[in-house]
């Protein structure tokens, strides 16, 4: 009985060590190839359009997150919301519907399902 418990514990430990090693290797590759910042920027462009995304990255709050000449690899949710509402010239209490309806200066920002936000 105890032998099978030892085997089970050994398998769990081996699995956890291998998982940790794979995660560390993946993070190292992502950092070396600057994949995080590129993926984040591509996602923001896809979500908001190229014009608004460029304006967001020029905002001082986002620009302060840059590391040298590299775009930020992470943007805190609060900072993203503040910058988005600032660029759209909306109050801090704006809802998603307000954002989509008030984004007249950015025609790229159109909802995929407009009735969902009404």
Characterization of this structure:
The structure is a single chain. With about 120 residues, this protein is mainly α. It folds into two domains: about 1-35; about 35-115, no CATH class. The chain has helices at about 1-30, 35-50, 50-60, 60-65, 75-85, 95-100. Helix 2 (about 35-50) packs across helix 3.
What are the defining features of this structure?
elongated, single chain, mainly alpha, about 0% strand, about 120 residues, about 65% helix
The count of β-strands is 0
What string gives the helices and strands in order?
HHHHHH
| Alpha-carbon Rg, integer | 22 Å
Number of helices: 6
Number of domains: 2
Low-pLDDT residue spans: none
For this entry, what is the oligomeric state of its chains?
A: single chain
Shape: elongated
Percent of residues in helices: 55-70%
The span between the termini is 62 Å
Structural class: mainly alpha
**Main pleated sheet:** none
Mean pLDDT: 85
- Report the β-strand fraction as a percent range: under 5%
